[in-house]
From TrEMBL, chain B:
Single annotated GO MF: monooxygenase activity
Database matches in PANTHER family: CYTOCHROME P450 YJIB-RELATED, P450, PUTATIVE (EUROFUNG)-RELATED
Annotated protein name in UniProt: Cytochrome
InterPro entries per record: Cyt_P450 (IPR001128), Cyt_P450_B (IPR002397), Cyt_P450_CS (IPR017972), Cyt_P450_sf (IPR036396)
Gene3D superfamilies: Cytochrome P450 (1.10.630.10)
PROSITE patterns in the cross-refs: CYTOCHROME_P450 (PS00086)
Organism, as annotated: Streptomyces gilvosporeus
Family in the record: Belongs to the cytochrome P450 family.
Keywords, comma-separated and alphabetical: Heme, Iron, Metal-binding, Monooxygenase, Oxidoreductase
Protein origin, superkingdom: Bacteria
Amino acid sequence: MDAERCVGSGMCVLTVGEVFDQRQGDGKAIVLRPEPPVETRDAVREAVDLCPAAAIFLSTDRRH
Amino acid sequence: MGDPLHTVTTLPTARQPGCPFDPPAELIDTRRHGPISRYTFPGGKPGWLITGYDLVRSVLADSRFSSRKELMLHPTIDYGDIEVPPAPPGEFLHMDDPQHRRYRKPLMGKFTVRRMRLLTERVEQITADHLDAMEQAGPPTDLVTAFAKPIPAIMICELLGVPYQDRGSFQEQVGSFMNGETSDEDLIAAYTATQEYLAELVAAKRANPTDDVLSDLTDSDLTDEELKGISLLLLAAGLDTTANMLALGTFALLQNPEQLAALRADPALADRAVEELLRYLSVAKTFMRTALEDVELGGQTVKAGSPVILSYNTANRDPERFADPHALDLHRQDGGHLAFGHGIHQCLGQQLARVEMRVAFPALVNRFPTLRLAVPAGEVALRPEIADIYGVKSLPVTWDA
Ligand code: SF4
């Protein structure tokens, strides 16, 4: 998550609320589950694609 | 790719009779020629018209395209050599970063998914109040004044802290500079009155902060002038767009009875239905950008300084992105419509708009199972194409009382 780029649209929270949330103060997205459960993978991919600011990055590296 | 480059010299001024929900036929035809066309602006300046989904989205995400007001050229009116001033302080829709960011940042925390969801109950209450009033007054009624306008107006006024007694006159002023039909003189008068009102409101909040977004913002380093600009933008955005979605959306549902029945039968369909109505209607239909440098786009070179028209409504009907794009299908699975834009300017109030629509549409159609148009569909008065936001002027409806 690149908090610098995030414009607080909430698209990621709307798409996968289990994985993303927004900070109360500044509305920036936060990652609740850096290793999203398998069943949310498709939705996470969709969130990456929908993010208007290209602020979310998906790593296939298993350690991330 | 094979098609020769299409050139458009005038933008359509009307929709096909009988197709109030579809973009003008000429624009759909332009998309058919390819996602990017040349467009000659009035006055002769060459520019571009982007009608395809992928290209519209990529321009919106590209910081080489500017939103600065002083660089914009009006798509249909030739203002000659008049120099357009930069956007007034606070009106960040027409600014680039870092100025844009300075204003958007303090607002982001106020419009989060979570905060907006907390407003659901309040929206339900306001919606129920208006449905009660409709029921009591009995059919027929104009859905725009009885339902579509007041719900978003009350919500945005409460969020910003516009006192209740000021809302009527305020809404009228904002409405008159959004409808695309006000004379220049009245437009300036309405705009000035709104500006003056907001200046007073900002001063009042600074003196006596209350529990609302505007009062919260007085606690930042933003000046009164800037707060006035921000409020103007939020109000104009929050009042007119959702109101038009609610009224035009109801019209679209009434014209698609099997879709309406599906929504009535399945409350869980509401979220998806709202996204589909947003895509299908795209009431905010065009936005402008200007290239800051030469950019390769869809096989063409958009030269630095070139104005670009982004057609959201054809992008959201792009057959390469949405199967059977001209059908209203509330069960549609593919997301990613551009109704709220994309990139750094993507609608800040979108989660509020979603909550309002997710509550209001089902509540309306379930309260009045026999809801129908009170006039033939062809007689419903539509806004002219030149209005920034598309919609109906009024929507006469009736039901079995
Ligand atoms: S979708 Fe992107 S811009 Fe929107 S809140 Fe999430 S990270 Fe931020």
